[in-house]
Amino acid sequence: MSVLVHEVRDRSSVAEAGKPGRFLIQLIDVGRGSSGYYPAETLESAARDRVFPAGTHMYMDHAAAIRRGPSGERSIRDLAAVTVEDARWNADTQALEAEAQVFSGYVDVLREMKDSIGVSISAWAEHAAPKPGQARTISRITEAESVDFVAKAGRGGKILSILESRTASSEATARDRREQLDQAVTDAYADPQASVWAGVSDYDETDHLVWFYVGDALYQQAYAVADDDLTVTLIDTPQEVRRVTTYVPVQSGGESTTNQEASMPEISQQELDQLRESASKVATLESERDAATKRAEEAEARAAEADRVQRVAEAKAQASAKVVESTKGEHPAIASRVSRLIVDSIAEADLPADLDARIAEAVRSEKEYLTSITGGKLTGFGESTPSPSPSSSGPTAPSAGRSRAPEEALTNEHQRDFPARQGPLHAGPGRHQVR
Fold first, then answer.
1. SS3 for 234?
2. I need a surface site. Which of 55, 132, 223, 416 has the fewest CB within 10 A?
3. Do 219 and 199 contact (CB within 8 A), yes or no?
4. What is the pLDDT of residue 263?
5. How far is residue 249's CA from residue 415's CA, in Å, rounded to a whole number?
6. Whether the predicted pLDDT of 425 surpasses 70
7. Residue 372 · residue 385 · CB < 8 Å
8. Following CA atoms 391, 382, 378, 421 in sequence, which dihedral angle do they give, to the nearest 10 degrees?
9. Is residue 205 classed as helix, strand or coil in its secondary structure?
10. C-alpha distances in angstroms, 6 versus 59, 146, 375?
């Protein structure tokens, strides 16, 4: 039998690198996981059979059914990487390994979380019946769905290393430098939780000065460039400055001379509009997230209630079957009434422990009632004993073996009176009510 298994691995241990990146992933190693014990031959077989082929998707987290599409498909919004080779068996580490290409939007995120996450396989597998006191053994991994980055580690899966990063050049481009400075300023001064935003307005590559804003204030600070020209570091103390704009006459040749004192480059209107637009999107995204979370919770609640109703219906069906079995040979009216009373009393998914006693007591109570209204002339219900009569001339029980057929058991008068009976029916120890 094939079952879907998820196996999670140890926390990742990676080296610092740039973006985009290729990661070396350890999918799973020999040992006991949450779904069972994985022997070496099972993992070696998975490598030979190409169960985890090149192109296997790697998502951020496993997905519950409620987060999947109508056909069970995953969302591309969660797709973080794909393997670029078939998973291979490493005899030294007793594990399956594969290289994966991480998409640029997730490289920095995974690098930052490297010490707090693991890797988990999501696959179908066959297992042998467990021996007493032992975990079941995964005998064969038949098909892989994905290999995912997860929060909780368990069975050896991890990011082993980042194999490549951006190639260093002798000189960073102007766009690269601005991105480096913007990252340095943001890391040093921005605080999104407190709605404090920071970013670069301009910089001077010759003097190694950067002008940046923190909220509504403007600052100037010196920076240093690393030997590889790929990273910058803010140095010295930031100094608050103000922007100065000067106007000069245009000379006859169409040229102008500039006479600025402590002037500072201005942020463009386009950059300012982009910053304002980004800030306005925060509230919208938070609202959409909360609405999606609420819809998911409501859907889970509806599913749970539907499951409860289904289980109660199954319990009622089981109780009805028990009544049918227990009332064989009784008059149909008794069987019908007892069934209705017993089944109506079932309100939980688990049948009462004293259900058989309740049924027996209900049958006895109904037969006593019929005996009382027929004056002891109850026939067609199996053997019965006439009710005591103060008069010696009262009716007596019919002889054994001479009962009438069930359909002739009641007179028309008694048949009219029987369904009109009202009041609780008692059964079981302590004579508790079952209605």
1. strand
2. 132
3. no
4. 54
5. 117
6. no
7. no
8. 120
9. coil
10. 13, 10, 70
Q: 178-206 b/e with 16+ CB inside 10 Å = b?
A: bebbbebbbeebbeeeeeebbbbbbbeee
Cβ atoms of 236 and 222 closer than 8 Å: yes
Cβ-based neighbour number of residue 305 at 10 Å: 10
Could you state, in order of their start, the residue ranges of all structural domains in the chain? 2-164, 174-267, 310-433
- Report the predicted TM-score, pTM, of the whole model to 2 decimal places: 0.37
Do 321 and 344 touch, CB atoms closer than 8 A?
A: no
Residue 322 has pLDDT above 80, yes or no: yes
Res. 89: pLDDT tops 50: yes
Specify the length of the chain in residues: 435
134 — alpha (psi -120 to 50), left (phi > 0) or beta?
A: beta
Q: What are phi and psi of 42, to 5 degrees?
A: -65, -45
Residue 169, pLDDT score: 35
Residue type, 162: I
Question: For 184-231, how does the pLDDT look when each residue is reduced to its tens digit (9 = 90+)?
Answer: 999 999 998 889 999 999 999 899 999 999 999 999 999 999 876 778
β-strand partners of 22: 101, 164
CA atoms of 148 and 59, how far apart (whole Å): 5
- Sign of torsion over alpha carbons 325, 328, 332, 334: negative
Residue 43 in 3-state DSSP? helix
Contact 24, 171 (CB under 8 A): no
β-pair type (198-204, 36-38): unpaired
**The token pair that represents 228 in the structure block:** 């590889």
